[in-house]
Amino acid sequence: MKTIDFNLEHIEAVKMRLYNFANQFDVCHVYDSNQKSSACVEDVYEFLLGLGSKRKYNGSLSDQLKEAERSEFWKFLAIPYNKVEEIDHALVFEPLLVFSIVKNSHTLRIINNGIDEQSFRDWVSAFENYTYEPNVIKLTADFQTITSKDLYVKQVEQIRKDIYNGVFYEMNYCIEFKASMHADNLLPCFLELNSLTQAPFAAYVKHSEITMLCSSPERFIKREGQHLLSQPIKGTNARLHSEENIRQLNALSTSIKERAENVMIVDLVRNDMAKISQAGTVKVKELCGAYAYKSVNHLVSTIKSELNDGTNCLDAFQALFPMGSMTGAPKLEVMKHILDYECQERGFYSGCIGYMDPNGDFDFNVCIRTLIYQADKKEISFKVGSAITYDSSPEQEYDECMIKGSRMLSVFKKD
């Protein structure tokens, strides 16, 4: 294990060097909290990078997670939306090296993730001697969606009827925007998006077949020892400037409709966590906390528990995935209807991105506010959605989707 000290005042310059160094590789995962703290300040790393691929896991998600649990090395993961037993194309791998900056630390740590010592020293030397020229090439894309506003409004009205008839209580309904594109280097696009959003769970994920530019504000689950944490987001309005946003936050936190969205998902998460937690330990640490992000305000709740002895990562995913904030309630019933209402498969959108350390601790975001480039299709896309309850206004829900998608669209607009 090697550490390099740096001046905290220059952390953004260090990050830029790490991003560009990582982008030379066919495989890298970069997680960046952008010097922001999540709700209730439940963070470990300011920056985490898995570089190169030493070992790629194959098979079903269940098999991959079982195998990952047995490994003594760091694992980095990107998991698509679906029932756990039906996922067979997750991205799970062990990198060659891990670069980490702990929150409020002055140290960049470079970790040998199981390669020989000479190779490790060579890679460390390559990073120490690395220089780069910033890439400022601007890409453009003409995003289109097959879900017009008129269709969206009709669908939401039908969803409200289903809720009225007792089919389900809440559905997270999503629409997709996509564009044709051929891109060899999407890092500049991610860096621009990251600058615009400064999301606490941002991720740059690069594989030969897919690249993800993620500006997620939401954590799915985090394990530290026997402690489990989930932080669902439900409830959104636009962020305004300075003192005006104080009123916006107050309006959000007191909105009966927005709080109802959040509380329904909190109840779902509590029930899911109870399946793998010690009796009486599932507690809501914060309910409907109102937080300001770069362009939106959100209601965030924090639920914690103490895990049963012997609980592993697969157990956690079987109990909680996919996350209730991206399905609705009741989860299994509403997932059936999502297939009917949405015009596209979700893929990695509303899945999760994260890591598992050698101790078995893990942390995963919710893969939202994410641009996904598929090299074989030469296509880039993103999806946005909102929680539909009976009290939802179709026009307001559509406007919420446009707010959530605005930053991603702006990255590819012509100047």
Question: What is the gist of this entry?
Answer:
Helices cover 31% and strands 31% of the residues.
Q: Would you mind describing this structure in some detail?
A:
By secondary structure, the chain is α+β, with helices and mostly antiparallel strands. The chain is built from ten helices and 21 strands. It has helices at 11-22, 61-70, 117-128, 149-164, 187-197, 242-254, 256-274, 313-320, 331-341, 394-411, and strands at 2-5, 28-32, 45-51, 55-56, 75-79, 91-94, 97-102, 107-112, 170-180, 201-206, 210-216, 219-224, 227-231, 233-238, 283-292, 296-306, 328-329, 352-356, 362-365, 370-374, 379-388. The protein has an eleven-stranded antiparallel beta sheet. Strands 4, 5, 6, 12, 13, 14, 15, 16, 18 and 19 form a ten-stranded antiparallel beta sheet that branches. The longest helix is centred in the middle third of the chain and has 19 residues, at 256-274. It is globular. It starts with a strand and ends with a helix.
Mean pLDDT: 94
Shape field: globular
Tell me the radius of gyration: 21 Å
SS class: alpha+beta
Strand content: 25-35%
N→C terminal distance: 45 Å
Main β-sheet description: 11 strands, antiparallel
Task: Please render the helix and strand layout as text.
Blueprint: E1 2-5, H1 11-22, E2 28-32, E3 45-51, E4 55-56, H2 61-70, E5 75-79, E6 91-94, E7 97-102, E8 107-112, H3 117-128, H4 149-164, E9 170-180, H5 187-197, E10 201-206, E11 210-216, E12 219-224, E13 227-231, E14 233-238, H6 242-254, H7 256-274, E15 283-292, E16 296-306, H8 313-320, E17 328-329, H9 331-341, E18 352-356, E19 362-365, E20 370-374, E21 379-388, H10 394-411
Antiparallel strand pairs: 1-8, 2-3, 2-10, 3-7, 4-6, 5-6, 5-18, 7-8, 9-17, 9-21, 10-11, 11-20, 12-13, 12-19, 13-16, 14-16, 15-16, 18-19, 20-21
Helix pairs in contact: 5-10
